[in-house]
Amidohydrolase
Amino acid sequence: MKKIYLLALSVILISCNKEQQATADLVITNAKIYTVDNNFSVATAMAVKDGKILATGTDADMAAYSATQIIDAQGKAIVPGLIDGHCHFYGLGQQLQRVDLVGTKSYDEVLERISSFQKEKNKSFIIGRGWDQNDWEIQEFPSNQELNEMFPDTPVAITRIDGHAMIANQAALDAAGITTTTDASGGAIEIKDGKLTGILVDNPMELVESVFPKETTQESIASLMAAQDINLSYGLTTVDDAGLFKETIELIDSLQQTGDLKVKMYAMISNTPENLDYYLNKGIIKTERLNVRSVKFYADGALGSRGAAMKEPYSDRHDHYGALLSPIATIKETAARIAATEYQMNTHAIGDSANYVVLKTYQELLKDKTDRRWRIEHAQIVDSADFNLFDEENILPSVQPTHATSDMYWAQDRVGADRIKGAYAYQTLLKQSKRIALGTDYPVEKVNPFLTFYAAVARQDTSGYPEGGFLPEQALSREDALRGMTIWAAYFNFEETEKGSLEPGKAADFVILNDNIMEIPVAQLHEATVKSTFINGEQVYESK
């Protein structure tokens, strides 16, 4: 009788213990979890329920939870879902359907790739991107003569890797209505010996782009889904797409609502009259996966194509200053219109002149406002006298570290020894604004966020050049680089209360890494890979 009583008591105790356990959908144990909270705490275990972080702590702490799924992380590092603070997600997907010219070492190689592409695809309009004359032995823009001979009747438009210069053949120029008398304000239409060379810089490129064949809905969906596959494989759970049109934003929303598009999107609307009229009047659009509350504006072009607006002439081209893409009056007028709404203004500014104009415009408009978080995208070349125009709550720097390591071979030739001191100055910007968002600007650069992390910390290319790093005093610590790709990037998107760190109540967006980027040697950071990617507690990627 006594044995029966003790057995019954033990059953009751076990039952009560189970009832006392909180339930979770997922528990992860035996991990090294970098929560990126205010203390940069490190945990070994985590519980997830209904797509949110339930708790973090030790393995013993997680014994308080009963879960339908338990993952032993086998000691691997876990970080919050990575956020690309500036990219072109839809553009990446489109580029996957076009001629890939990245890495070409000569114009002849460019022509060979176009020829091979057309033999396979037989397009009615050949579009491509990725060439960079700075990588060629002859570092000059070519002419379209060979393209005219190869494709006399088929339009061809191939864009420089930074998206700020284009080579168009005569068929494309004709389709766009471009002649030697076409207005080239905000850019350039190159003319030699009274003839068009096919080189277009910045604004005139839009004339050619306006006659590109319109994508079908199915082609657009294919582009978005292809881009998602790549991003999830790198642990990117939120992306800031820097310039989208209403039609694409609505397609993204529909794909997210059906569950096909898992990745979260911070959408910057392209600065067009139609977009401004619609979105500024409609107000912020926010769902669980989509956030539309900012305007992408272009102040100038790119350094590589000498389109960045500089205060003094380029060091390698006498009397050439680059150009603002819009008159200062237009910049101020647009900024004032945005300031009257809840929308954020995110302005592409590369040259020191463009940065100054935008910084002063922001400062004047926001002087009596708080927590506007307007962004300078790139903040690439800043006059040393102008860094103090950035601040902690209204004017913030959004940068792309791999731009520094891509440009370092020729950047000083463009701007000289003095101005280069204010270039790619991430540590200086961080000290001024207390936060800095990191991105890639892909497909200008590669999607891989570990290249971003490596470039921010090492300031070197993947071969270890230069020894000691490029402008090494501007390097970020690993902790700050991770913050810039998680919690600070979330802050720049007004989303820091819902993502960016692994804290109770926040979205269970996280990445299990094969390589611990907080501990492995710096030289190995760019080789890091992802084991698993989770969004809202759902596994959306697993390495093979």
User: Anything to note?
Assistant: Residues 2-20 form the longest helix (19 residues).
